[in-house]
Design goal:
It is a single chain. The chain has 21 helices and no strands. The chain has 432 residues and is mainly alpha-helical. The protein has a domain of 159 residues.
Amino acid sequence: MELILSIAYASLFFFIIGKASFFRIEGISHRMLSFAFAVKLVFAVLLSLVFTHFYTNRLTADTFKFFDDSKIMFSVLHEHPTWFLRMLTGIDDKAPYLLPYYDQMHNWYNKAVIFNDYRFQIRLNAFLRFFSLGHYYVHAVIYCFLSFTGLTALLKLFILHLPQFKRALYAGTYFLPSVLFWGSGLLKDSLIFFATGLSLYCLHRFIHDRKFRSLICFVIFLLFLMLIKFHNFILLVPLYAAFAFSSFIKRYYIAIFGIITIVYYLALLKMNVVLPGYGLMELLSKKQAEFVDLAQDYHAQSAIPINILEDSEWSAVRNTPQALSHVFLRPYVWEAKNAFILMAAFENILLIILTLLSIFSFSRKNFTITALMLLSFIYTLSLFEMIGLVTPVMGAIVRYKIQALPFFFFFLTCLTDKNLLLKRFPFLKKIT
């Protein structure tokens, strides 16, 4: 039954990709999009096999633990439908008679984050059980399609700005190895791609069509992002504001992004004045300490030394070179202790090569600054900075940074003059 349902849902999604107007991109055929989705499905299955056979503890495996906890929540439906609705919606969900069910779950109580996205993921998986009949791979197929939809939204925006690089952007959006592996299966990462891509796409639509429907969709997907990954939400809020403001004005892009971003982060740094304990540096310092303790408790094989992040702005400034080098360059090839770290090391080499190609094919004469380019650059830099400051494990770094990789690839493409690129590197004509 699981195989039949999974194939049925995958077939439905292939049909939608072939028929829905959203998936029509000039220069990118339906076959190309269907191929990208098929590859993502393969990696969704691969992810589950890896966690089944190599990381066998389902209590700590992200792809299983929320799915398993959702089974406990869904079981309440048959005996107490109203109780289930309270647990699912969060409305009056703290009733004493619900506590025994929460206590059975391994991930309901998580006080390490401001917004407990664990509960949201459990609720989402419980809701999906209406359609999956409790089968894991059906959830994986749905998550894969959500991720694909978000990435497609990004690709549409990227191609709109750089139509001369259609094929390169297609490859850079869908097929970076770590994006495929971590961003295709039943993981939070797939949902982040979904929410990020569609929130930005809807914001772009609202800027150009001024329709209330586009604004409502933007708010919905932005709130979804807040619930699923608060850190990414925090980073994108000022960039979305600057993107909208500069797109309306159509000038002063650097000034607008600079002013809004600086004022925003200054406010976050001083947040502890209004909310003691919630200043940006206090939160980052605490997060790093928790991560270091976690790495030590679980004896993380890919742990690396990291400078202690103190509760001060200057500590972050001092640690920035190490933070960015860890995210941009680590792991090195000789640090690889398993196939996944080795894959990430080769991906870093690929990104370095792409960066060098962009630098050597840059032409100031033909270079144009756009709002989307600045958003991509600042989002990549800020996410890499945050990850590098608090994360002492290379495996986690590889996974966390995938959210910025399509944006980073787009930024590098913005720097590239295609004529100059092909003149200096003619062998690239077939793939650009």
